[in-house]
Write a structure and sequence with these properties.
The protein has 127 residues and is an alpha+beta fold. The chain is 28% helix and 22% strand. The chain contains four helices and five strands, in the order αββαβαββα.
Length: 127
């Protein structure tokens, strides 16, 4: 699967966002080492701390299906380009990165932007 296909699935997932408070919709689609894809969208709660990001929603779906190694994740928001994951999501992605790393794909000004999780989270916590 190429990265544009992942982004297309992230765009579709963003349409299902439940973001009545922030009005900031986000969709994500990840690719596992086994070639499976999992999508997620953000969903908010009036108790803001209970809000779940699109990235962690997608990771949770992958984990529930037995996957543990993520190769790439595309993240999209209709609200802004360069929609990179928050700090909590960066750490979660780092926890489940494949042995060869994990690419984070966002929509750039003219093309897709790709950054390794190790760049976005240098010295991430690892056991």
């Amino acid at each position: 699967m190429d990265y544009q296909e992942l982004m297309d699935k992230a765009i579709e997932a963003a349409k299902n966002s439940y973001s009545p408070y922030s009005k900031f919709a986000v969709g994500a689609c990840l690719l596992t080492e086994n070639g499976k894809t999992y999508s997620g969208c953000n969903f908010e709660n009036s108790s803001f701390g209970l809000t779940i990001c699109a990235e962690r929603n997608a990771v949770g779906s992958a984990i529930a299906d037995g996957e543990r190694k993520i190769k790439a994740i595309a993240i999209y928001s209709p609200n802004q380009k360069h929609c990179y994951p928050c700090g909590a999501c960066r750490q979660v992605l780092n926890e489940f990165k494949s042995d060869s790393g994990l690419d984070v794909i966002t929509e750039g000004d003219t093309d897709l932007e790709i950054a390794p999780i190790s760049f976005l989270l240098p010295e991430g916590f690892n056991l």
